[in-house]
Amino acid sequence: MAEIHPPYSSLKKTLSLLNGFVTVSGMILIGLGLSVKYGEANLTRVLGLSSAYLFHVGYLCLIIGCITLLLGLAGWYGATKESRNTLFFCFLLMVIILILEITAAAVVLALFRMVREMALEHTFVTLRKNYRGYNEPDDYSEQWNLVMEKGVFYFFFSVQ
């Protein structure tokens, strides 16, 4: 005889699967934050202070990854134990995070042109100050020449 399932068993499995995806995305964000924070940052050596925002992005990825990981685990626990309070808490926090992300995206899009111009100006000033020439042996010139010869994609994803 076939096993009788309660009417919400498929919903329980779906919620568990979706919260598993949320948990995995939290782990990926934590890994990305750690690689930005503690990985070999060649771009930071080349551009100097103009790429200091990469460290802030690393911290941001770590924080958001930890929050996402905890929300995913709490949602998975709530779906597994059929706890309405835990599921409601996770849903409420995810809605709040979604609203904050939409607000942050609107602010970034509104200020994008001004921030881009400031960052480019600072990068050009740093480049003019530190770049010595094509065949110069210093680290700054070598790294910048590598970027210009091989392209940005090669620069970020090459193993050195």
UniProtKB/TrEMBL annotation:
The chain crosses the membrane at residues 15-36, 57-79, 85-112. Keywords: Membrane, Transmembrane, Transmembrane helix. It is found in: Membrane. One of its GO terms (cellular component) is plasma membrane. It is a multi-pass membrane protein. It comes from the Eukaryota. This is Tetraspanin 16. It comes from Sciurus vulgaris. The lineage of its organism: Eukaryota, Metazoa, Chordata, Craniata, Vertebrata. The gene is TSPAN16.
